[in-house]
Write a structure and sequence with these properties.
With about 450 residues, the chain is an alpha/beta fold. The chain has 3 domains: about 1-85, 3-Layer(aba) Sandwich (Rossmann fold); about 90-285, 3-Layer(aba) Sandwich (UDP-N-acetylmuramoyl-L-alanine:D-glutamate ligase); about 295-440, Alpha-Beta Complex (Protein-Tyrosine Phosphatase, Chain A), CATH 3.90.190.20. About 35% of the residues lie in helices and about 20% in strands. It has helices at about 1-10, 20-25, 30-35, 65-75, 80-90, 105-115, 180-195, 205-210, 255-270, 275-285, 310-325, 335-340, 345-355, 380-385, 395-405, 425-440; strands spanning about 15, 40, 55-60, 80, 95-100, 125, 140-145, 150-155, 170, 200, 215-220, 225-235, 240-245, 245-250, 295-300, 300-305, 325-330, 360-365, 390-395, 410-415. The chain has a 10-stranded mixed beta sheet, sandwiched between helices. Strand 18, helix 14 (about 380-385) and strand 19 (about 390-395) form a beta-alpha-beta unit.
C-alpha cells in the first residue's frame, strides 16, 4: 500500500491514507517519510474519507465493516482493491512481473539494480524495502521511473495475480504458503498463460516443472538449465559463482540467494540486458531489508533479522546461517493465526529438519494484527511438534531476550524471524545492544 501511495504521489496525485499502526503510534519512521512526500495521514475512521476523494484503495486486511468503506459507500465513492490499482499501473506499461512463493522481493530488487546498471528508467514497485532506494524521504519499496517498464512483485496470496498481463514474467518457485498447491498451480499457470513475452522458470523447482510453459527460459543450480551456476563459493562477504564462464558476486549469503541471482540474470538476459550490466547490478545490490539482514556482531556472535515465515523461506535462511555459525539461536514469531494453522505441520518439519540438538528455538506469541481472527491456536502448538532443537516458549520479548543473553556464546548465530511485524527489526537490534552490554 505504501509503495502504491508513493508512486501515485510521484505522478502528481493527491494521496491520503490511514493505518492502525499509525493510530497506535507505531512505525513512526515509516510514516514520517510518507508525510515528507506530502502524503497525508489520517485517523482510521470514516471522517478520513471526504467527498472530494476520487477513489478509496483497500488491502485485503481491511474488513468490509471498516468505517472508511462505510463512508465511501455513503458518498458513492468507488472502492478499489490494492491489486486492481497495481494492475492499472502495471498492465498499460511494459509490465515485468516477479511471482512465486519465495524470493520475489529479493529477485525484484536484484532486477531493479541490474536495470539501474543498464541505465533503464523503470518504475519499481516491490513488496520489500530495497536498501539502495532508501533515502531521507523514500521508504525504498517503490521508485517512479520515466521509462516504459514497470517492474513489480506480484502477489498470489489473495488470488489477485490473475489481474496481471505481463510483458515478461518470472516465477521463482512454488511451495505451500497462503494456499494449497492445487490452487497455486492454477494461479501460476494463469500467470504464465497471460504473459505475452518471455517467461522465466526455476529448473530446480519440481512444481514449476509441472506447468505448461513452451519456450520458457530456465535457471537452476542442481538441474540442467539455460542459466546455471557453477563454481559456487561462500565467503564472509557473500557468494561467488559463474554463469557460462562469466563471474558473478553477490553480497547476500546462501545458495538460495545464488538461485535468486540466477533468476534475475535469466530474466534480464531475456530482456536484452548485457552481461556487464548484469554483473555490475548484482555486485552493487545491497539487499532487501529483513531478508537475512546482518544486524551486527559481538565478538564471534552474529545477530540476523529475517522475514522468513513459511517453510521454504525458513529452510533457506536456516541453511545459510548454519554455514556461518557453530550454533543457531532462533527467535520465531508466527505471522498470524490462520497461516500458523494452515502450515503447522510444514513449519514443524522445517525446524525439525534444519535445526540440530545443540540449536535453540524460542517461540514468541503469534503476531496479532487485530480483526476477527480465530485465535484458537498458539505458538506452543507449533513447538510441541518440533523435534531436534531445544524449544522454549517465551511469553514476551523480554523473556526471549533473557533466554538469549543467558545462553549466547562464542560462534552463535542469533536470528529473529517472522513476517508482517516491522518491530521485529527493533527487537533484533535490542538483542545486539544487550550482547554488547554483556561483553563490557
Amino acid at each position: 500500500m505504501s509503495a502504491l501511495a508513493q508512486i501515485l504521489r510521484a505522478r502528481g496525485h493527491r494521496v491520503s491514507g490511514s493505518d492502525r499502526t499509525h493510530d497506535s503510534g507505531g512505525n513512526r519512521a515509516v510514516f514520517k517519510k510518507l508525510e515528507k512526500q506530502a502524503i497525508v495521514l489520517l485517523p482510521q475512521e470514516g471522517a478520513s474519507v471526504s467527498a472530494d476523494v476520487d477513489f478509496l484503495v483497500v488491502s485485503s486486511a481491511i474488513e468490509s465493516s471498516s468505517p472508511e468503506r462505510a463512508q465511501a459507500l455513503r458518498l458513492a465513492i468507488p472502492v478499489m482493491h490494492r491489486a486492481r490499482l497495481l494492475a492499472e499501473l502495471f498492465n498499460p506499461a511494459e509490465g515485468i512481473g516477479i511471482a512465486g512463493t519465495s524470493g520475489k522481493s529479493t529477485v525484484c530488487g536484484m532486477v531493479a539494480s541490474i536495470f539501474d546498471a543498464d541505465r533503464r528508467q523503470a518504475t519499481v514497485i516491490n513488496g520489500g524495502i530495497i536498501n539502495q532506494y532508501v533515502s531521507a524521504t523514500m521508504l525504498g519499496n517503490a521508485r517512479h521511473g520515466e521509462g516504459a517498464e514497470c517492474l513489480a512483485e506480484l502477489d498470489e496470496s489473495d488470488g489477485s495475480i490473475s489481474r496481471f498481463f505481463p510483458a515478461a514474467g518470472l516465477l521463482t518457485n512454488i511451495s505451500k504458503d497462503h494456499k494449497p498447491l492445487s490452487e497455486l498451480r492454477e494461479l501460476f499457470q494463469g500467470f504464465i498463460d497471460q504473459t505475452r513475452g518471455p517467461v522465466v522458470l526455476n529448473a530446480d523447482c519440481p512444481e514449476s516443472a509441472r506447468l505448461s510453459a513452451p519456450g520458457a527460459v530456465t535457471f537452476g543450480i542442481g538441474h540442467a538449465a539455460d542459466y546455471r551456476a557453477a563454481g559456487i563459493t561462500a565467503g564472509p562477504r557473500g557468494m561467488r559463482f559463474t554463469v557460462d564462464g562469466a563471474p558473478y558476486a553477490i553480497r547476500q549469503p546462501g545458495r538460495h540467494n545464488v538461485a535468486n541471482a540466477l533468476a534475475a540474470i535469466a530474466l534480464c538476459a531475456a530482456l536484452g540486458v548485457p552481461v556487464k550490466a548484469r554483473q555490475l547490478g548484482l555486485r552493487r545490490f545491497t539487499g532487501i531489508q529483513r531478508r537475512l539482514s546482518l544486524i551486527g556482531t559481538v565478538g564471534s556472535i552474529s545477530v540476523w533479522d529475517d522475514f522468513a515465515h513459511n517453510p521454504e523461506k525458513l529452510r533457506a535462511s536456516l541453511r545459510a546461517i548454519r554455514l556461518l555459525s557453530k550454533r543457531m539461536l532462533v527467535v520465531f514469531q508466527p505471522h498470524g493465526y490462520g497461516p500458523t494453522r494452515f502450515m503447522l505441520e510444514e513449519l514443524a518439519r522445517a525446524f525439525s529438519e534444519e535445526m540440530r540438538s545443540r540449536d535453540i528455538l524460542i517461540g514468541l506469541p503469534i503476531f496479532d494484527a487485530g480483526g476477527t481472527a480465530d485465535r484458537s491456536i498458539a505458538t506452543e502448538d507449533l513447538l510441541r511438534k518440533v523435534r531436534g532443537p531445544r524449544c522454549l516458549a517465551a511469553g514476551d520479548r523480554t523473556g526471549a531476550l533473557a533466554a538469549i543473553i543467558s545462553r549466547a556464546c562464542s560462534g552463535d548465530g542469533i536470528a529473529v524471524m517472522g513476517a508482517r511485524d516491522d518491530t521485529l527489526s527493533a527487537f533484533a537490534r535490542r538483542i545486539l545492544q544487550a550482547l554488547r552490554r554483556r561483553a563490557k
